[in-house]
Write a structure and sequence with these properties.
The chain has 413 residues and is an alpha+beta fold. 34% of the residues lie in helices and 21% in strands.
Length: 413
């Protein structure tokens, strides 16, 4: 199966609770974008409007390799001439507070699943019925783990373990395949010159990373004195200067991994007790087994069952079905809940929350199997559905082709 072969294969529309107000200090806009992440689009808009990125606030982060419609707010009106081939911006009203994820009620999706084999096509009808009846495990998918795309570890795990230099190295000195040439060159320079901050500052082109290196220069080099060696406290202070949206993303990625691993262990324990059948899949976060169907009693229990998104303040006694699995995941990761407090980082923190273990695709529709116009000899299906805030459409897409013994050929999440 191929996902997102072209942007129009993945269309997402945000449903918001925002209601325009007659007055308000924030200006709300609809962003219709194509082949840009939300953060990339807002960065471009901020630059052209003469604003800082933090003056713009999106209600959610929508997929890059897609066509997406969503809302964002600004603390001052945007100039009318902001135009780009990849997005349009339309004023929709005022708000008395900036938009956050709390404004999102749901997201609707229209997907095209391409490159399907006859074996995959044969299971889609049964899988569609199972999804409607029993839901899908509410895993986080690849989009959430983009900060670990380099495969060298989660930045927030290094933070939790007090390895702040390693966290900065992962942020600044590991090129990513999908970065711009400027960013790749900056990170290659950081790989080569790590610790030689003055030389690295001169080599780097202007960027947020160059500003971080400038901070390390002013911290470690004293006028008329021998240069100091940057210690973990200096790297912690440097990390706090990273753009807030990126720091939040790094924390969320590791928190999401812990949730996925907790859910995986829970499902595998149910399988071991012969209470559920599982089929194994894998994404960038690890293995994500999925159930095929649930007995009526299981469905009644699991429909409203929630597991924690852990933080230092999480009380595991409030999650009796998850507790042993959370503890097992933390032990396997070599960390404790208390370490999630991140004491040396007052502006970077894990926030306790909870998440349902199942998601249900509302109004799920799947077309008949069609010949794939982009992949000769293969097939495609078109599907549409609505998911609650924070659930991943790509998980539903994977579930639709589950059981054919094949692996996604393309997923640029």
């Amino acid at each position: 199966m191929k996902l997102r072969q072209v942007p129009s294969d993945f269309i997402v529309t945000e449903h918001s609770s925002f209601t325009p107000q007659a007055t308000g200090r924030y200006f709300v806009y609809r962003l219709d974008k194509r082949s840009l992440s939300t953060l990339e689009a807002l960065s471009i808009i901020a630059k052209r409007a003469g604003l800082r990125p933090k003056q713009l606030s999106a209600s959610g982060l929508k997929d890059k390799h897609a066509e997406a419609s969503q809302l964002f707010s600004a603390d001052r009106p945007l100039p009318g001439e902001i135009k780009d081939d990849r997005f349009t911006v339309t004023f929709v009203g005022k708000s008395d507070r900036p938009l956050t994820a709390a404004f999102i009620d749901a997201n609707s999706f229209k997907l095209v699943l391409r490159g399907l084999t006859p074996e995959e096509c044969a299971v889609i009808a049964q899988n569609t019925a199972e999804i409607r009846d029993c839901g899908v495990p509410n895993y986080y998918d690849n989009q959430r783990f983009g900060s670990n795309v380099h495969g060298q570890g989660f930045i927030s795990k290094a933070l939790v373990q007090g390895r702040f230099e390693e966290a900065m190295r992962l942020h600044m000195a590991v090129p990513h395949r999908k970065q711009s040439l400027r960013d790749k060159n900056n990170r290659r320079a950081a790989q080569e010159l790590w610790g030689k901050w003055q030389e690295l500052r001169k080599r780097m082109t202007k960027s947020p990373e160059q500003a971080l290196v400038a901070f390390l220069c002013t911290t470690t080099y004293r006028a008329g004195a021998e240069p100091l060696v940057a210690d973990e406290a200096m790297f912690a202070a440097c990390f706090e200067r990273i753009t807030p949206s990126l720091r939040i993303m790094y924390v969320a990625a590791y928190q999401s991994l812990i949730f996925n691993e907790t859910l995986r262990r829970f499902l595998e324990a149910e399988r071991d007790q012969q209470r559920v059948d599982l089929v194994q899949l894998q994404n960038r976060g690890g293995f994500i087994p999925m159930h095929r169907f649930l007995a009526p009693a299981q469905l009644r229990e699991w429909r409203d069952l929630e597991f924690p998104l852990v933080a230092a303040s999480t009380k595991l006694d409030e999650f009796p079905r998850a507790r042993e699995h959370v503890e097992a995941v933390l032990a396997a990761e070599g960390i404790t809940l208390e370490q999630l407090r991140l004491k040396p980082l007052p502006r970077t923190r894990f926030k306790a929350a909870k998440r349902k273990i199942l998601m249900f695709a509302k109004d799920l529709k799947v077309s008949d199997v069609l010949e794939d116009d982009l992949n000769p000899g293969r097939y495609k299906v078109e599907t549409s559905f609505t998911l609650p805030r924070g659930s991943f459409a790509t998980i539903v897409a994977r579930r639709l082709a589950l059981g054919a013994g094949t692996k996604d050929e393309q997923d640029d999440s």
